[in-house]
Design goal:
Length: 433
């Protein structure tokens, strides 16, 4: 049957909150709608189905989700509103009781949305706790130049502040064979850069029975793949073997994302993180020894319960000492059911806000300094889009945004760029021919 005959003129609007993993999962679900003859329209336009893939990592994410549901009901009062993902898994009743919501699907059930839409269900909540592994990857309909490929889901760590293990379940992973075949498909669709993503991808090794280093090696060997990165990796999971595989190929980019969360050992212990400040320093120094120009991102939480001014200062000083270039700063958010939520020394909202602001300003300054250090060098840039000034924008291998002039169509092209100047954490450059 022709696609258009399956669902004549049906429209779907999708919205994603949260992490890259969620975005890649929405991408696969969007492709499922397209395969069934739906037309994807912008969120906020009237649609037959509105699909919201939620996040619950902070209370702000929860309230944003509730606002999106209200907006969806306003724009598509007759449409079916499906709310799926982490927030649905944790608070299904709250969501189901909101006006206009037709289906609430948990972190596993969201992949079965097509079955639920086809059935006349009495019930509207489907939250399974078995947590199978469902693959996901960026799709061409999203218009991205960098493809996210999901290799792992869930987490076994139970950090005291984190709700994710409750929402996404135990760690599980894709096999190397399946990951390679998905990567080949992405390459065939024209993607030149792949970013491996998951909740705790360093745990790949422990639950697939296969090594992350072997997976990375096999992907680096693929013809047609030009660039490979890992998304966030826990510092304690970066082995010497993994680093040596990364270093063995110019396809592996010198950009890393290593969560820190705090630069104080007592807070790290309270957070139940699996490393000390000293361990973290060692791993960053190893990365810099292997990739001297590396861009390194770090997640930091400000205002964990009991965090004193001095402990915050320890985090600031560590970030100052280490070559961390991209800061991802979050205020601590109390999540019901976590160990940290039960602590009695919570930090006042204004103090958390002040600390976040301090680190964000410092992060901007460090990124600017890093960009200035790149001036005079040459980097291979994957161009993504032409901006409103008619200039092309893309990213260096070490993840600094670059702006360059060209009359040619550079979308999805990798070009050598001589970096000539820097401003506010961005680089300007000239194409080399
Ligand atoms: S490693 Fe810790 S912070 Fe990351 S998902 Fe697992 S429990 Fe959460």
């Amino acid at each position: 049957m022709e696609k258009s005959q399956q669902n004549p003129e049906k429209k779907v609007a999708l919205h994603t909150l949260g992490c890259r993993l969620n975005f890649s999962e929405t991408g696969s679900i969007a492709q499922g709608f397209v395969d069934r003859g739906y037309k994807v329209v912008d969120f906020g336009e009237p649609a037959d189905v509105v699909f919201i893939n939620t996040c619950t990592v902070t209370d702000k994410a929860d309230s944003t989700c509730r606002n999106l549901i209200r907006k969806a009901h306003g724009s598509s009062p007759e449409g079916k509103i499906v709310v799926a993902g982490c927030y649905s898994q944790m608070e299904p009743e709250t969501i189901a009781n909101m006006q206009g919501v037709d289906l609430v699907l948990g972190t596993t059930e969201k992949y079965k949305v097509f079955e639920y839409l086809n059935e006349e269900e009495e019930n509207k909540i489907f939250v399974d706790k078995t947590h199978e592994f469902y693959g996901a990857a960026t799709t061409p309909s999203e218009g991205h130049t960098r493809a996210f490929l999901k290799i792992q889901d869930g987490c076994n760590y139970i950090c005291s502040f984190c709700i994710i293990p409750f929402a996404r379940g135990r760690s599980r992973a894709i096999s190397i064979a399946d990951a390679v075949s998905e990567a080949k498909e992405l390459i065939d669709r024209g993607f030149k850069e792949i970013i491996l993503t998951g909740v705790n991808i360093g745990e790949y090794e422990n639950n697939s029975g296969e090594k992350l280093a072997d997976l990375v090696q096999q992907l680096l060997d693929l013809d047609g793949l030009e660039r490979l990165r890992l998304s966030s990796v826990e510092p304690n999971t970066i082995t010497d073997e993994l680093l040596s595989v990364m270093k063995s190929s110019p396809k592996f980019l010198d950009h890393f994302h290593i969560p820190l969360q705090s630069g104080d050992d007592d807070i790290l212990r309270e957070m139940r993180r699996k490393y000390t400040v000293e361990d973290y320093k060692k791993i960053i120094n190893k990365i810099i020894a292997a990739f001297p120009d590396a861009g390194i991102g770090a997640d930091v939480i400000c205002g964990f319960p009991g965090e004193s001014d001095q402990q915050f200062k320890n985090t600031y000083n560590l970030l100052k000492e280490l070559p961390i270039t991209h800061f991802h700063v979050f205020p601590y958010s109390k999540r019901k059911g976590t160990t940290a939520a039960k602590l009695d020394n919570h930090i006042h909202h204004d103090v958390k806000k002040g600390r976040v602001k301090t680190l964000m300003m410092f992060g901007d300054a460090k990124l600017s300094m890093f960009a200035e250090d790149q001036v005079g060098k040459t980097s291979k840039v994957l161009f993504e889009r032409r901006n409103s000034d008619g200039l092309w924008e893309g990213y260096t291998t070490n993840f600094v945004r670059v702006i360059a002039k060209s009359d040619a169509d550079l979308k999805n092209e990798i070009r050598s760029v001589h970096l000539t100047s820097a401003q506010n954490g961005r680089l300007y450059g000239e194409l080399l021919h």
